[in-house]
C-alpha cells in the first residue's frame, strides 16, 4: 500500500524527535517535548481510530513542524548545532 503524506511525516516525526532529544539541549528540548506530546496524541488517535480532524490536516501540521525545526536548531547551543543538523538531515 502506498504511504500517504500523513504516514510519511508521522514516521519522520517518530524517528526525528527522539533522535534530537538525545542531545539534551536546554534550548531545543521544550520544542521537542511539545512535538513529542503531539506525536503521542496522534498515536492515541491512530490506536482508537478517532480523529478530531482529517489526516490531511494533521499531515500539514506535521509537515510544518518538521520543516520549521531547522529554525529552532539554528538558535540552539552552538556546541550541539552541527550534530542536530546532522540528525535532522539524516532522518
Protein architecture, described:
The protein is mainly alpha-helical. It has one domain. The protein is built from 4 helices and no strands. The protein has helices at residues 5-21, 29-48, 55-74, 78-90. Helix 1 (5-21) crosses helix 2, helix 1 runs parallel beside helix 3 and helix 3 packs antiparallel against helix 4 (78-90). The protein is elongated. The model has no long low-confidence stretch (mean pLDDT 96).
Measured on Cα atoms, how large is the radius of gyration? 14 Å
Runs in which pLDDT lies below 50 for 5 or more consecutive residues are none
The class by helix and strand makeup works out as mainly alpha
SS strand fraction: under 5%
Taking the alpha carbons of the first and last residues, their distance comes to 22 Å
Topology:
Layout: H1 5-21, H2 29-48, H3 55-74, H4 78-90
Features:
91 residues, mainly alpha, 4 helices, elongated
Offer a quick outline of the entry.
With 91 residues, the chain is mostly helical. It contains four helices and no strands.
